[in-house]
Design brief:
With 458 residues, the chain is α/β, with parallel strands linked by helices. The protein is 40% helix and 13% strand. The strands form 3 sheets. Strands 2-9-8-7-6-3-4-5 form an 8-stranded mixed β-sheet, sandwiched between helices. A 4-stranded antiparallel β-sheet has the order 10-11-14-13.
């Protein structure tokens, strides 16, 4: 090449959830070890059957000629109007705080369909949100954090993300004083992200925490992004709220999707809900830029958009959501029981989404001992393959990533290292998605035993 064609920040993009797939595929093909995919949150791939009444709606929509056409750039008007109406209904619902009292606060302003913009999945939406920022602006993100946010912020800025830590000993709640100090110390911060329920943690933010974050945003003239992908998969006892219910007149964006709750991840259909655009001209120009960038791609996929009002407006939909919540609550309890009493490990009970995170306690993992082969393998060649990956990595892998590779090679279970979620904490994330009851119990038990064995070995 006459000059470099590689973007200077390209090497900083990492997505541990899928980065490990190539390694797993190699192990599966060369050593014939069946892989148990616990890295990706795809309910359908893990065996969940989409209800027949939903399939019938989708099938019927495929018979309509318009499902094969372009939609408007921002999305199909009927679907945008339906979602705006849902937000307007939700924003006026009473918010119960953790003490059972009604939480004071104000909802967002009334939404119109113009406040809804569709994307080809939330990965597309997240990319646009960061790409359209001023290059010098920064977004404050949680730690641990879903890597699409961390990766997009890193690629946008060319610097490591600025993060506010979530405390595993306080049910992954943030230290709000520390969060505000980070805003004060970093004048380039223009917005704050939170993910509720959390990915990878599976925990929820209380209404009080969300309200406090909103107030920090208000005091410092920022905007707020709430990733609410899993808000309709909230099954724990702790109360929570949607951003629309407590944001008041602060400018903000909520991210929503059909991937996890219908579930229809292959549709690649997500949208943003824009709150209070009229209150801030700079924010309004930012949203206009996002819509303009979307026009370069013409539009999002039409078929799933057409299905949304019919599926979510169906009388069976609320029962469908409730059934899935109960299933994930039961599986979270199963995972909790598998890890109970395991020395050196911290398991925080998830209350939403469909993930669970195990953390290696400080002092048990690190130093030279974690460089040793932590788990036994059946063949020398497979051990050499894993050792070669670790030895020749561009950056020395974190101890939990080394554990994840050895776990994959020894058991075939593919999980994600916690260090892949923009955090220095060590551990791993797995899913609650396995449909086969016996297989699921085996997965949870094996993970707990292997992690415990690893702790004892170190």
């Amino acid at each position: 090449m006459r000059r470099s064609i590689v973007h200077p920040h390209a090497g900083k993009i990492h997505y541990e959830i899928r980065d490990i797939v190539a390694v797993a595929k190699t192990i599966e093909s060369r050593w014939h070890i069946p892989i148990i995919w616990e890295n990706i949150g795809d309910p359908v791939k893990k065996g969940e059957s989409v209800p027949e009444w939903i399939r019938s709606i989708v099938a019927e929509k495929t018979r309509e000629n318009c499902s094969y056409a372009y939609s408007e750039t921002e999305g199909i008007g009927e679907s945008r109007e339906f979602i705006a109406a849902q937000v307007n209904q939700r924003r006026n619902q009473v918010v119960q705080g953790t003490n059972g009292n009604t939480l004071p606060g104000a909802p967002c302003s009334h939404l119109e369909q113009e406040d809804i913009i569709f994307f080809n999945g939330l990965g597309d939406a997240i990319g646009k949100l960061y790409q359209l920022l001023d290059p010098a602006s920064r977004i404050l993100i949680p730690s641990p954090c879903y890597p699409a946010h961390a990766g997009a912020e890193t690629f946008h800025s060319g610097k490591p993300p600025i993060t506010y830590p979530l405390d595993p000993l306080r049910n992954w709640e943030p230290d709000l004083n520390q969060l505000e100090q980070l805003v004060e110390m970093n004048p380039d911060i223009v917005g704050i992200v939170y993910i509720n329920p959390g990915n990878p943690t599976g925990t929820v933010y209380t209404p009080e925490t969300i309200s406090h974050i909103v107030e920090i945003v208000r005091r410092h003239g920022l905007f707020i992004i709430a990733d609410e992908t899993y808000l309709n998969i909230h099954f724990g006892p702790s109360p929570t709220a949607s951003l629309a219910q407590v944001i008041g007149d602060v400018p903000g964006i909520a991210l929503r999707s059909i991937s996890k709750e219908i579930p229809w991840p292959g549709a690649r259909c997500g949208w943003i809900e824009v709150y209070n655009k009229a209150t801030n001209r700079e924010f309004a120009l930012y949203i206009e830029g996002i819509a303009a960038a979307k026009r370069l791609e013409v539009c999002a996929t039409s078929l799933p958009q057409l299905c949304i009002p019919v599926i979510m407006g169906n009388s069976q939909y609320s029962a469908h959501l409730e059934k899935r919540k109960n299933l994930f609550a039961q599986r979270a309890q199963e995972a909790h029981e598998a890890f109970q009493g395991k020395k050196g490990l911290t398991f925080t009970m998830p209350e939403g989404a469909f993930y669970a995170t195990v953390m290696f306690n400080k002092g048990f993992l690190g130093g030279t001992s974690s460089n040793r082969r932590p788990l036994s393998l059946k063949t020398v060649s497979l051990a050499s393959y894993i050792e070669n990956i670790i030895e020749h990595a561009t950056h020395p892998p974190a101890p939990d990533k080394r554990f994840v590779y050895w776990l994959l090679a020894s058991t075939g279970i593919c999980v994600v290292p916690l260090s892949g979620f923009a955090t220095d904490l060590q551990g791993f994330r797995f899913t609650l998605l396995e449909q086969d009851d016996k297989q699921r119990q085996t997965i949870f038990t094996t993970l707990a035993e292997q992690a415990q064995w690893h702790m004892d070995a170190n």
